[in-house]
Recover the amino acids of this structure.
């Protein structure tokens, strides 16, 4: 069943007299208990897209439907309903928690505002949520600074779970954590999906984590999705040269790890002055005839595999 | 036997005093050979950055330290400040994680590179600027003669890190210490920077001491690896050995917690990295170790050989 449907979502920011197209014509959908992985380098618009979906920022255009509700048109009541079903967790858990609130108050606030439980039951429910994310009940009376980074991320997850959401937007939830802790959090998210049927929009620049966790994966470059397909196919046989380069550039922790890499030319261009033709052509190792003049069409090149590249 | 380029012996670094004293690095020893590529791997708080800083004697003023850091036969920790100044930036140089905070925003990158040259070599301003252009070219910055006049804010993160590398190699040092040089960068740019650093190492025959938390970088670049945990080296070996034949539960745990195939459950290291004032007696990894037995709590194990050039600080090293 389809839970989230995004059609031609756009977010433009005015920069002086020019326009920065942070998210430009992005479409995808996520089903119940599905994990949709969104990968891209800094500045590609992946976090902006995550915020658009919750209407934390106003879209410039396009349509976003969550669980039958039009998010873009939604006001007050409808929007509250959307956000009960759709929660978000961020990269830096310390910045997302109020340093002067105990865990009980942080998690409890969500429970009370949304009338999930009565005031008398708050403590019990909060303890249950903490247990679900692997923290013991003693934690209820502690402040955020008393926890480690991984534990804080667990608190943020518990708070997101308080309203019984159907889907969580996880915006780089692992990036601020140590390697040995990242695996713990990734396992926790996996368990939540299995046990509670939660769907995820998993935003990350960590390709291995996306490959491990997501069912469908999309690669963003300069505000657009350049490739989208079932995760296993995307990572085993990338179609877009950008995906191919990204995959080849990830250092692999194995013996003889040094393989031929595709070293891309230069930096990501400014999103204000997107190159003509294919936006990726100045850095592309496979560019040919039409690339610097003709914008490639984003199309289903093989069943289930969407790509915008003249090669396909 | 030839002496190593750098040898660190019995290095201890701590902060505070009395009951509040925190020991961040504990009796650490390591060697960097000529034309070596040594990688130190560790998570936050393992003491890897302080170890690197001690090689340049750049520790914060409130740090207490003891031990010896011998570079080309001279002890850096007891060297006179004047002698140290002649060494820093000339024979040993450093590249940090965040290039923006390492560069001065109000000077052009050219003048910052030239400054290194002018400090150590008897050349004119004009010559120094010319060499700065050449250095920008050798770190593959396009149109270096124009870029040399730019300020750090006009450049991207990857470009700035190239400028930092240009400064580091300006005086052809014997040793470059790179502390998480690519952590702030995207993967496609990370690949560019590592390729550049590796290429320069081959060309100039300098040694590189690279500090990272990324085992992938270790696999691709390291000749030798030292794994740090709670201020100690817990395992050291050649890069291949570390991946094929890890002999410490922590190293093993790090390798197993990396995402692999879809659907396979990850095996994380349980628990948290202990705080330095809450370290357990005996082996410091006991609080998170799968292989822990009674004897582990009694006495901290020594770093003992478990194979050719392979050392582990675990009493069950041969069983795991």
């Amino acid at each position: 069943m389809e839970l989230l449907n995004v059609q031609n979502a756009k977010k433009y920011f005015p920069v002086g007299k020019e326009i920065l197209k942070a998210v430009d014509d992005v479409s995808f959908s996520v089903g119940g208990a599905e994990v949709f992985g969104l990968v891209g380098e800094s500045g590609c618009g992946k976090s902006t897209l995550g915020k658009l979906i919750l209407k934390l920022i106003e879209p410039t255009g396009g349509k976003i439907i969550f669980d039958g509700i039009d998010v873009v048109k939604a006001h007050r009541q409808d929007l509250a309903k959307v956000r009960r079903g759709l929660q978000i967790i961020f990269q830096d858990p310390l910045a997302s928690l109020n340093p002067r609130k105990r865990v009980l108050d942080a998690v409890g606030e969500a429970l009370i505002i949304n009338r999930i439980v009565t005031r008398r039951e708050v403590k019990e429910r909060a303890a249950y949520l903490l247990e679900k994310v692997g923290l013991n009940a003693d934690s209820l009376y502690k402040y955020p600074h008393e926890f480690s980074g991984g534990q804080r991320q667990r608190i943020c997850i518990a708070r997101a779970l308080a309203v019984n959401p159907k889907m969580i937007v996880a915006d780089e939830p692992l990036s601020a954590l140590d390697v040995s802790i990242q695996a713990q959090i990734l396992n926790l998210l996996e368990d939540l999906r299995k046990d509670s049927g939660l769907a995820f929009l998993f935003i990350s620049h960590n390709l291995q984590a996306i490959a491990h966790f997501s069912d469908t994966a999309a690669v963003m470059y300069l505000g657009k999705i350049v490739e989208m397909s079932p995760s296993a196919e995307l990572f085993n046989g990338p179609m877009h040269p950008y995906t191919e380069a990204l995959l080849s550039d990830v250092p692999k922790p194995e013996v003889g790890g040094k393989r031929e890499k595709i070293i891309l030319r230069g930096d990501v261009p400014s999103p204000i002055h997107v190159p003509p033709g294919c936006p990726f052509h100045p850095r592309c190792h496979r560019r040919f005839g039409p690339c610097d003049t003709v914008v490639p069409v984003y199309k289903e090149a093989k069943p289930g595999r969407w790509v915008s590249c003249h090669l396909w | 036997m030839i002496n190593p380029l750098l040898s660190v012996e019995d290095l201890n670094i701590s902060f505070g005093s009395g009951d509040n004293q925190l020991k961040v690095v504990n009796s650490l020893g390591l060697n960097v050979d000529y034309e070596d590529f040594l990688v130190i791997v560790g998570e936050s708080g393992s003491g890897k950055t302080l170890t690197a800083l001690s090689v340049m004697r750049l520790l914060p003023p409130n740090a207490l330290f003891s031990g010896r850091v011998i570079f080309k036969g001279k002890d850096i920790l007891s060297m006179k400040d004047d002698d140290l100044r002649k060494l820093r930036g000339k024979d040993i140089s450093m590249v940090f994680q965040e290039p923006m905070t390492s560069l001065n925003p109000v000077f052009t990158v050219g003048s910052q590179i030239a400054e290194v040259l002018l400090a150590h070599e008897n050349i004119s301003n004009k010559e120094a600027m010319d060499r700065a252009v050449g250095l920008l070219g050798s770190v593959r910055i396009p149109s270096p003669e124009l870029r040399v006049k730019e300020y750090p804010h006009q450049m991207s993160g990857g470009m700035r890190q190239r400028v930092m590398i240009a400064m580091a190699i300006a005086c052809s040092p014997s040793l470059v210490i790179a502390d998480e040089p690519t952590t702030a960068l995207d993967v496609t740019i990370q690949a560019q920077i590592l390729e550049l650093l590796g290429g320069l190492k081959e060309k100039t025959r300098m040694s590189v001491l690279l500090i990272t938390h990324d085992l992938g970088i270790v696999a691709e670049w390291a000749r030798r690896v030292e794994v740090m945990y709670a201020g100690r080296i817990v395992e050291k070996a050649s890069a291949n050995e570390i991946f094929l034949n890890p002999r410490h539960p922590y190293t093993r745990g790090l390798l197993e917690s990396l995402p692999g195939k879809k659907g396979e459950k990850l095996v994380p290291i349980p628990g948290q990295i202990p705080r330095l004032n809450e370290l357990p007696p005996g082996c410091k990894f006991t609080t998170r170790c799968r292989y822990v037995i009674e004897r582990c709590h009694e006495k901290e194990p020594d770093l003992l050989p478990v194979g050719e050039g392979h050392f582990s600080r675990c009493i069950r090293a041969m069983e795991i």
